[in-house]
Amino acid sequence: MTDKPVVVYGATGYTGRLICEYLRELNVPFVAAGRSKQRLDDVMSANVPGIETADYEVIEVEHTVEALTELFTGAKVVCNTVGPFISFGGEVVEACLAAGTHYQDTTGEQDWLLHAEATWGEQFAEKGLLLSPGIAQMYTTGEIAANIALEAKPGLDSLDILVLWKGFPTYASTQTIFTILRADWFHLVENQYVKWDPTSAYEAVVPGQHDLAIAVPWGGQSTPVWFKNDPRVATCRAIGGVLNRPVMEGVVATIKMVEEQIKTLPEEEQGPALGNIAASMQAGMPPRENPRLNTSVDSVWASGPLGRAHCVIYGNSNYKQTGLLQAWAALSLLQQPPRRVGFASACQAFGHTQLLGVLRNFGLVLDPVVEVYS
Prior knowledge:
seven-stranded parallel sheet; Rossmann fold; 2 domains
């Protein structure tokens, strides 16, 4: 049991550290939780600037529903960064439900979103709690842009979303990327989920530059799920990638290899095989983001039979965007109920205008560039 209102579970990871950093800046007391107290102490002191001024404590905890429930009891919000979430998220969600805390995570796993919605969405709603997976730059910032495009010309019903960024995935992100290669990926067509061809790859036009970029469905992403029951939207697809052509060429080749070699293995052998490949590709933490180099582009076309609207949000430091979004969402939940309880996105729970303002206020994105065609 804790007397701190927020628990950051997985605080030793790259994103967990950034959430703690922004909770400190927002003056929110928190628990930094994970499997090793010694590692947590080391990470907090060495990797979280200004931690000596934060109101926090470090707690070591086992990854079981019972242990996590005991820890979460007394808290109001849990920020979960322990992925792959389809493998490790269930215990955390169950513990939040038992302890009566809001749940949010940073997932990029569409299959985890669909599973969480079907399994726990109604239970969280009945308790007045928020279940919000996927609060992160690669999903939330694009969702903000999508809402702006839809509002720029009401009546448009199709979304074409492109999310690109410069940088390298963390170890945890790499593990997640390879985990989703085993799942089916979906986009939305006329309010129905349609399965992606996992080997799909596109030459995408990058707003603001002459070069094209390679983009892939990237697990399907979360936005088709969030807009599934939005009356404004009938069709939604999301693609994305890293603004580094050699890296993306490797991603495309790896996806093809998984389809041809890994998915032909027995089910019980696929996970370990993918895990070994992921570990060999990313062995450690990337350096702290440089806003000059680690830029992001979220581009959304909203369209209909007789009109178009285009919204682009240029930003930097996508992991810092994620850390801030997580920390601010937690702060908001401490002060007032979310706009929607149960299974809901960050934009549905807190409002896209407010989330954009937070990112702008901390210097992580520019004002959106919006063009309307009719």
